[in-house]
Amino acid sequence: MGELEAEKHVQYILSVEKRKDDFESLLMEHLRINGAYWGLTTLDLLRKIEAVDSDEVVSWVMSCQDQDCGGFGGNVGHDAHLHYTLSAVQILLLFDRLDILDIDKVSDYVAGLQNEDGSFSGDIWGEVDTRFSYCAICCLSLLHRLDKINAEKAVDYIVSCKNLDGGFGSIPGGESHSGQIFCCVGALAITGSLHHVDRDLLGWWLCERQCKDGGLNGRPEKLADVCYSWWVLSSLTMIDRVHWIDREKLAAFILNCQDRENGGISDRPDNAVDVFHTYFGVAGLSLLEYPGLKPIDPAYALPVDVVNRIFFGK
Ligand code: GRG
Ligand code: ZN
Fold first, then answer.
1. Among all ligands shown, which has an atom nearest to the Cα of 134?
2. Cα–Cα distance, 36 to 91 (Å, whole number)
3. What CDD domains would the database entry show (predicted)?
4. Which of 86, 145, 167, 258 has CB 3.0 to 4.6 Å from 107, enough for a Cys bridge?
5. Which of 34, 133, 182 has most ligand 1 atoms within 8 Å of CB, for mutation?
6. Ligand nearest 38 Cα, by number?
7. Rounded to the nearest whole angstrom, what is the distance from the C-alpha of residue 130 to the centroid of ligand 2?
8. What pTM was estimated for this model as a whole?
9. Considering the chain, what is the average pLDDT of its residues?
10. What is the distance between the alpha carbons of residues 102 and 33, in angstroms, rounded to a whole number?
């Protein structure tokens, strides 16, 4: 299966950061702040975050903030959204630069998107999804401002999205999907509400996501994809059931999706690489305790040392 081409992946991520006008960058224009979070977190897991100019990144992140509402857009001048706002906060935390942020302004923006039933809209246009519950809860917890929302109602809403198979969907009655399960289990973990999860039932559903090739899929009958090495494995880690899958086979699947020549990781073997799947692969290997990588926190999706600095000042 070969080893992790750590140095090649570092070079790949640095090269994507620099290329601002090629096709992939064009497609990603509106998602740039998410892409920056995935790329920078990967560099940090690979212990190479010093390779980027932190002042340059931090000032670009700050230029994505909407001065009126306080939320962040995906790029300079773009509309604010909860997901972009979470990425902005995560990037600032990777560089330990929360000092530059008006924390109450940002957290008021996030809290203002909570609805009467406890759910969250992603932005002023109102789409409701448990992804946004996660973004809000994760972001406010990182900013030490969870008291600005009705956390009890937020938890009740997430629990109302739980299905008979133990999984969670995007809205009440929505089909279970590993991505949504990450969001719901992550938000429940952060709020200390994991007692709402039936660990054995959900663990069973999640470990059934492992396919013959060793990779994980997002829901029944789908193909394995490296991104589920993050969505499924982080969920299994939070409910303490990682040992229910074959970890060696999963590591081999991820390592097989590397571009060994030019760096980067793809969704499945021999496909084109991208920054997202490079993160998902490296983060999955980190959860599998692959040698040399920093450990990642499965709920906050940040390196454990960063999370410890936030909550314990270490
Ligand atoms: C900070 C880690 C972090 C996340 C932020 C936005 C968000 C919160 C989470 C997104 C969770 C989610 C719904 C992920 C799933 C993405 C995905 C690959 C969807 C496609 O699913 P299918 O089942 O297709 O339609 P596949 O490709 O699996 O066949
Ligand atoms: Zn994928």
1. 1
2. 8
3. GGTase-II (cd02894)
4. 145
5. 182
6. 1
7. 19
8. 0.96
9. 95
10. 18
Which pLDDT score, from 0 to 100, does residue 277 have? 97
Whether the per-residue pLDDT at 314 is higher than 80: the answer is: no
How far apart are alpha carbons 80 and 21 in whole angstroms? 23
Q: Among 123, 168, 183, 278, which is best to mutate for testing ligand 1, by the most ligand atoms less than 8 A from CB?
A: 183
Mutate to test the pocket of ligand 1, among 87, 93, 129, 227 (most ligand atoms within 8 A of CB): 227
Give residue 162's pLDDT: 98
Q: What is the pLDDT of residues 87-102, one digit of tens each?
A: 999 999 999 999 999 9
- The domain made up of 6-312 has a fold known as Glycosyltransferase (1.50.10)
pLDDT tens-digit profile of 230-275?
Answer: 999 999 999 999 999 999 999 999 999 999 999 999 999 999 999 9
Ligand 1 residue neighbourhood (C-beta within 6 Å): 83, 131, 134-135, 177, 179-180, 182-183, 218-219, 222, 225, 227, 231, 301
pLDDT digits (tens, 9 = 90+) for 2-48: 799 999 999 999 988 777 665 556 556 667 899 999 999 999 999 99
Q: SS3 string of the chain?
A: CCCCCHHHHHHHHHHHHHCCCCHHHHHHHHHHHHHHHHHHHHHHHCCCHHHCCHHHHHHHHHHCECCCCCCEECCCCCCECHHHHHHHHHHHHHCCCHHHCCHHHHHHHHHCCECCCCCEECCCCCCECHHHHHHHHHHHHHCCCHHHCCHHHHHHHHHCCECCCCCECCCCCCCCCHHHHHHHHHHHHHCCCHHHCCHHHHHHHHHCCECCCCCECCCCCCCCCCCHHHHHHHHHHHCCCHHHCCHHHHHHHHHHCECCCCCCECCCCCCCCEHHHHHHHHHHHHHCCCCCCCCECCCCCCEHHHHHHHHHCC
